[in-house]
Amino acid sequence: MNFDSLRLDHFGIRVTDLARAEAFYAKLGFTRDPAEYAPQAHACGLVHPTGLRIHLIFNGIRAQEGNVLLDAAVKRPGYTHAAFIVQSMNELVEWLARENIPISEGPLVMGHGRRNVCFIRDPDLNVLEFNEILAH
Known about the structure:
36% strand, four-stranded mixed beta sheet
């Protein structure tokens, strides 16, 4: 098997309330792809104008400990976040403030100075990372 052309198709995000999650991700530019809506599977595909896709898996039950992968005392294996590239961290931070979306961490420079990073959480406490790639 040759993986030279491997690309990401989508990533799944488990949520508790489809309408609330869909409204949140719409703020980031995602819209529902009717061909990717499968209520019997509790899945709703969203697509971004850049072609990036996510699937909202809408059968989650809110956990008392918050995000069970990051907030619980015992760390379980699993995907902890998605990381997006933005052109301007300053513009993102200003936009988040206007949208009343709190920053959970950052902005801070990471990756040995390669990127300026900011973290937020969606309504179900799923973590989203935004990176401004810095010139070296």
